[in-house]
Amino acid sequence: TQAKESMQFQTEVDQLLQLMIHSLYSNKEIFLRELISNGADACDKLRFNAISDDTLYEGDGDLRVEVEFDEEANTVTIRDNGIGMTREQVIDNIGTIAKSGTKEFLSKLSGDAAKDSNLIGQFGVGFYSAFIVADKVSLTTRAAGSTESVTWESNGKSGFTLEAADKASRGTEIVLHLQEDEKEFANGYRLRNVISTYSDHISLPVMMYKNEMPEYDEEGNVKESDEPKAKEWEVVNKAKALWTQPKSEISDEEYQEFYKHIAHDYTDALAWSHNNVEGKLEYKSLLYVPAKAQMDLWEPEQRNGIKLYVQRVFIMDDTKNLMPNYLRFVRGVIDSNDLPLNVSREILQSNQTVESMKKASVKKVLGLLDKMAKNEPEKYQSFWDEFGKVVKEGPSEDTSNKEQIAKLIRFSSTETDVEKQNVSLEDYVSRMQEGQEKIYYVTADSFTAAKNSPHLEVFRAKGIEVLLLSDRVDEWMINGLTEFDGKQLQSVAKGELDLGSLDSEEDKEEQKKTEEEAQPILKQLKDVLADKVEDVRVSHRLTSSPSCIVLGEQDMALYMQQLMKQAGH
Ligand code: ADP
Ligand code: MG
After folding, report:
1. Is 126 annotated as a binding residue?
2. Residue 92 is labelled as binding a ligand
3. DSSP for 310-363?
4. ipTM for the predicted complex
5. Which residues line ligand 1 (CB under 6 A)?
6. Which atom of ligand 1 is nearest to the CA of 34?
7. Measured between alpha carbons, how far is 420 from 176 in angstroms, rounded to an integer?
């Protein structure tokens, strides 16, 4: 056996621990949620690996997490018989937080306990929450299929030690030596209470010893029993996969708690859709719309998303095959009865079943959002403010649902002239003027620029509403969104503006006169600008600016041209 070996934390780890302990102090019981969820994850991994190699079970397939406490010693122990870790894995996963995100995590800590505990999940530093209540943590683990075990120990301050151990059973055992003033957690009621708050929905049993009721004699004195009774385990959480239960038996609190578990979020979800699909395809899905954007929403490789299960066995986190990009903020579970248990990432990419489940799930999410927009406009607005820029990728990405996505989009508009995007295309259409056939918009690279665009003058003068687009994604969105409700979307900066039908007879007379009068100067201008522009025309789109540049109908909008230039085209 190897001697005890000391290692240093990376510099950030000390810092991380101090900040985390400080900022989560008001919510310290989450340490139990994090450690139980790690145990449950470890069991999921074992079950998945055992699909192809069932010797990994070593004859013990009864996967569970056990929680024990010792009031006298002031300790809490969390134990699982999951996949365990090798010495190297302990160093990689627990020892160093060598994960690239740590620095970023630190920079994002805000001091707000609710926000920060959400970050912990997203960055995968949950294990360290143990130090919120413990001044020493001792982890002993044996990986499935291995004979060697190792003990990792740390006070959370001066690095950690590693030492060979002789753990017979597979899995991981974590002993928390509680700080003097955290004694409250070495208590059965307190622990049960925390477990049922945070871990009811974990599909794995979380076990504790039964409360031992003392036996009394006739006089009401505690019986002195000669033989100590063998302690008995009992399951203290509900231990049912939430999505397999009937909707009518699930409370909103349970839905929310499950959401927080799978999404590593601390805030409640905005809405969810729970479906039990039977027939040609059989699957269950539970899909959530979060309230707050995940940190990695704009990163190409984001964590989590939809969790794929096959017959209740966790298979993988999948973000690409089960939800399109423009709905990448959706969190949830899809549990299929049709896929093989040994389904691989490669199979997922071109699988008919997966494709159908995806299609139906997209419809569910769009329906959920549509309902929210209609029935809870304020909630919907908060959704839009948070995720609107993502949904705007929809019309180009998902042409089959274009019309439905279009209804969900919210715009800034000259109607309100405020930056808040709260005008729908339906609102716009309902306000269209007699004779107006198109939906007008202007794009610019800021809201102020859009709002002050000279192209708007004639529209403002005539009282015609124009949508003001200034998000980076808007040109891309407009590419996919060419019409709505049978009406064409028309840039006010492109081509001929046919506002003719909206002009009165007098206006038209007036315009004709102006055009005739302008002929000489037009000719002069054309000569001077000959090699710079295609044409010089009298415009009726301006009321106070003397001139403006107009793009041909086929030209890329200016902003798109700038984007392409920036991208090096
Ligand atoms: P996360 O669970 O988000 O990855 P944690 O800090 O909670 O982040 O855990 C870090 C890593 O340590 C896990 O990803 C896992 O590889 C490993 N780990 C933690 N607890 C256990 C356990 N009980 N059994 C096996 N591996 C574990
Ligand atoms: Mg974890």
Report:
1. yes
2. no
3. ETTEEEEEESSSSS-GGGTT-EEEEEESSS-TT--HHHHHT-HHHHHHHHHHHH
4. 0.99
5. 34, 38-39, 41-42, 80, 82-85, 93-94, 124-127, 172
6. 7
7. 49
From 34, 81, 93, 174, mutation site for ligand 1 pocket: most ligand atoms within 8 A of C-beta:
93
pLDDT on residue 364: 97
Pick from 6, 5, 7, 10: which is nearest to 98 by CA? 10
- Position 510 scores a pLDDT of 79
For the beta carbon of residue 144, count every other beta carbon within 10 angstroms. 23
Q: How far is CA 400 from CA 209, 221, 353, 373, 383, in A?
A: 55, 75, 18, 21, 23
The pTM of the full predicted model, rounded to 2 decimals, is: 0.73
Burial class (CB in 10 A: 0-12, 13-18, 19+), 554: exposed
Looking at residue 260, what is its pLDDT?
A: 87
* Tokens at 95, concatenated: 């020892």
| Predicted local confidence at residue 25, as pLDDT | 73
For the purposes of burial, counting CB atoms within 10 Å of the CB of 337, is it exposed (0-12), middle (13-18) or buried (19 or more)? middle
User: What's residue 98's pLDDT?
Assistant: 45
**Mutation test of ligand 1: which of 30, 37, 38, 202 has the most ligand atoms closer than 8 Å to its C-beta?**
38
pLDDT at residue 113, as a whole number = 65
Q: In what order do the strands lie in the sheet with 75-80?
A: 5-7, 160-165, 149-154, 134-142, 171-178, 75-80, 65-70, 206-209, 233-235
| Residue 345 is assigned to a ligand binding site | yes
**What residues does 165 pair with on adjacent strands?**
149
SS3 219: coil
| Minimal-distance CA residue to ligand 1 atom 18 | 38
d(CA 263, CA 274): 16
Span from the CA of 122 to the centroid of ligand 2 (angstroms): 9
Nearest Cα to Cα of residue 306 among 291, 293, 325: 325
281 within 8 A of 335, measured Cβ to Cβ: no
pLDDT of 555: 63
Q: Which residues of the chain have pLDDT under 50?
A: 98
Distance from first CA to last CA of the chain, Å, rounded? 62
Contact 252, 260 (CB under 8 A): no
Residue 498's nearest CA partner among 428, 432, 433, 437 is 437
Protein residue whose Cα sits closest to atom 11 of ligand 1: 93
Q: Which residue type occupies 237?
A: N
The DSSP code for 431 is T
Q: In whole angstroms, give the CA distance from residue 213 to residue 211.
A: 6
Q: Which ligand is nearest to the CA of 122?
A: 1
In this structure, the residue with its CA closest to atom 19 of ligand 1 is 38
The token pair at 527 is 């000569």
Pair of tokens at residue 56: 């990994």
CA–CA distances in Å: residue 405 to residues 73, 328, 346, 399, 402:
59, 14, 29, 9, 5
Index of the ligand 1 atom closest to the CA of residue 125: 6
Question: Which protein residues have a CB closer than 5 Å to ligand 2 (ion)?
Answer: 38, 126
